[in-house]
Write a structure and sequence with these properties.
Layout lengths: L17 E10 L15 H4 L1 E10 L5 E5 L2 E4 L24 H17 L10 H12 L13 E5 L5 H8 L3 E6 L4 H8 L5 E6 L11 E7 L8 H9 L2 E10 L6 H14 L4 H7 L25 H12 L9 H10 L6 E2 L5 E5 L2
Parallel strand pairs: 4-7, 5-6, 5-8, 6-7, 8-9
Antiparallel strand pairs: 1-2, 2-3, 3-4, 9-11, 10-11
Length: 353
């Protein structure tokens, strides 16, 4: 963690500023190019990497550890002490309430198994960047617009978008609820413009109105409260800043019936068994209207990579599907303009008023 991340972090419970206590830091070799980021710093800040320490709310009531370079700022309001889950940092999903645990364990084991693949959802890092520009970004924004902008990736998962955006000059804060965020930190955390935090998307530890571009790609529909998650991240874009989401679309009554009937079984299976079983239906990804939302097939990915897409769909407990009208109403209710809907249903992006 870099100390300048304090410019945007806040206590996820009280929304107060945070005090930093450093237990261990190291000197790293970074280059510093001043830009328009909302995370100002100086060369001396950028040569320091905080490996361990504490972030404490201004009232002293809430403390969050920094472990292996990553601030652990999970909040679970189903617990008597909502932030106590952070103390089980080696496997915090085990300390979460039952409401979260199955879904979080699913994604933790998914990224343990698949995060280091060259392709995730059938795409490399560079292909993820191209997909972002065509589907998740706004058509009015050229690729050059993102340079030196503050980009917030809410539920960054495998980290491919953090990788792609930082490589192209954006300052990126990526957060995710699983401890696999540390895997992303080990891969790209030494970049000056990459910042990784472990946090719950329903309670982001970020100050409102700071992001030039805020994205949540395929995450909020896997929470206990999809609408609440959208509301939580809608506070993060600055005025005229953008909010981009991708959620599962409602396809058809037949698809809903079959998929949910299968998920009633698959979400209860042991995860190692489910990973094996997900190799069987890979050829079915070619069927129009029934294949992967990411359009991953054996034409663009390996059998194993296609199986990961199936595992992603059939494993997590929480999953909701939505319509364009429903998503448009969310944007309107949170003071955002009517969204532009991308070519891959159901992606939406709009600016804040």
């Amino acid at each position: 963690m870099q100390s300048r991340l304090l410019n945007i972090l806040c206590c996820p419970i009280t929304k107060q500023d945070l005090k930093l206590e450093i237990d261990e830091e190291i000197v790293v070799d970074r280059t510093f190019e001043p830009g328009s980021s909302k995370l100002p710093g100086n060369p001396s800040d950028l040569t320091r990497e905080i490996i361990s320490g504490w972030l404490t709310s201004q009232d002293g009531q809430h403390r969050y550890p920094i472990v292996n370079g990553v601030p652990r700022m999970l909040v679970d309001f189903n617990l008597p002490e909502p932030e106590s889950v952070n103390l089980a940092f080696t496997k915090p999903d085990a300390a979460l309430s039952k409401e979260y645990r199955q879904t979080i364990e699913h994604f933790r084991t998914q990224w343990e198994a698949y995060a280091e693949e060259e392709k995730t959802f059938g795409m490399t890092v560079d292909e993820s960047w191209k997909y972002f520009l065509s589907t998740l970004s706004h058509p009015d924004l050229p690729a050059e617009w993102f340079r030196e902008k503050l980009f917030i990736d809410c539920g960054c998962g495998h980290g491919k978008y953090v990788d792609a955006l930082t490589a192209r000059g954006a300052e990126v804060v990526g957060f995710d609820i699983t401890p696999e965020i540390e895997r992303v930190y080990r891969r790209i955390g030494n970049r000056t413009n990459a910042h990784l935090v472990q946090a719950n998307i329903l309670h982001p530890p970020l100050k409102p109105g700071m992001g030039d571009f805020v994205m949540s790609n395929g995450v909020i529909h896997h929470t206990p409260d999809t609408r609440g998650a959208f509301q939580a991240i809608s506070s993060l874009p600055a005025s005229k800043g953008y909010l981009s989401i991708w959620v599962y679309p409602f396809r058809s009554p037949a698809f809903e019936f079959v998929s949910q009937a299968l998920r009633a079984v698959t979400t209860r299976l042991p995860r190692p068994l489910l990973r094996v079983l997900c190799h069987i239906p890979v050829p079915l990804l070619f069927i129009p209207g029934w294949g992967a939302y990411s359009e991953t097939t054996l034409k663009s990915a390996s059998w194993r990579q296609c199986a990961q897409v199936i595992y992603d769909f059939f494993g997590p407990k929480y999953q909701t599907h939505h319509t364009e009208d429903q998503v448009a109403s969310w944007y309107a209710q949170e003071s955002l303009l009517r969204p532009w809907f991308g070519p891959n249903k159901l992606s939406a992006v709009a600016a804040k008023k």
